Amino acid sequence: MSYLLRGLAAGGGLRIIAADTTRLVAEAARRHQTSPTASAALGRTLTGALTLAHVLLKNPRDRVTLRLRGGGPLGGVIADAGLDGTVRGYVTNPEVYLPPRSDGKLDVGGALGPGGDLQVIRAHAPYGDPYSSSVPLASGEIAEDIAVFLAQSEQIASAVLLGVYLEEERVTRAGGVLLQALPSCDDAALALLEANVRAFQLTEAMAHRSLLEILEELCWGLEFIPLETALPLSFHCRCSEQKALTAIAYFSPAEREAMIAEDGGAEAVCHWCGEKRWLTPEQLRSISREELRCPDCSTLWYRQGQLTIVREQELCACGRAVKLPN
Q1: What DSSP assignment string belongs to 195-206?
Q2: Was domain 241-288 assigned CATH 3.90.1280.10?
Q3: What whole-number distance in Å separates Cα of residue 297 and Cα of residue 16?
Q4: Beta strands in 57-127 (DSSP E)
Q5: How is domain 2-235 classified at the CATH fold level?
Q6: 3 state DSSP class of 263
Q7: pTM of this prediction?
Q8: Residue 4 has pLDDT above 60, yes or no
Q9: Domain ranges of the chain
Q10: Which of 218, 210, 214, 277 is nearest to 246 (CA)?
Q11: pLDDT (tens digit, 9 = 90+) per residue, 79-133?
């Protein structure tokens, strides 16, 4: 089982969030058929999003999205997580493989490439506009990039450790630790923590230690105190057959009939989790709500029961001014 622990150290001066994400990262890699390099990037991002959720969110219904984009062949990687312990995510080009670095570690930074950014989006349910902030990528190795984001955007000094270890291209260990200095933390505790972090190798420690033992070692001399029982974590997507039909509704009735004539239906693939759903001709023809499309290019402007897709007098992709029903 993947799980998360929270705690304090240094007499309450340090906040610590740690996760063993081995099973959920392995499931994500299997679903998306990722290369070893892409598995490492996706696993670090999923774990980072889960730990960030427990720093940035307050409401159990809120979500945090962590997106990294660079100029490398991977294209980008994204994860969406909540306080309920669920997370989902994907990489743009899951087949990308780069040789290991000179130190033997997977070259996630090279795969993401230079010139990109890390973006964090907080969505507040049930209402409220999402709040987004971003920083340039520091290294593309993800852990350092999250630490830079927390320092610049949240003004919180943090140490972030993320690791994914593969054997024969299979994820066998994955996890992460986020450590933050609170206002009451003194300089001596920070110096000791920094020395402990420098001497620590997360994926090696996960091979023979529990998460609690890892935190006790990381906090040697600082007295780690768990706050609560472990929170179960899982790779979980919110896709559904109804959402697949809603997506297919963007195709015009003529295009949907062409799918039926040529393929006998349509396959919908969720980019978040890789789940495939086959939609029958009956289901495709059941999409019959009132809708309005561009007379020139058939782009969907309005569909009954959905939020406004485009606004009055906006320009359609073909250049025609949008005219919506009253």
Answers
A1: HHHHT--HHHHH
A2: yes
A3: 54
A4: 63-69, 76-82, 86-91, 117-123
A5: Hsp33 domain (3.55.30)
A6: helix
A7: 0.87
A8: yes
A9: 2-235, 241-288
A10: 277
A11: 999 999 999 999 999 999 999 999 889 999 999 998 899 999 998 766 667 889 9
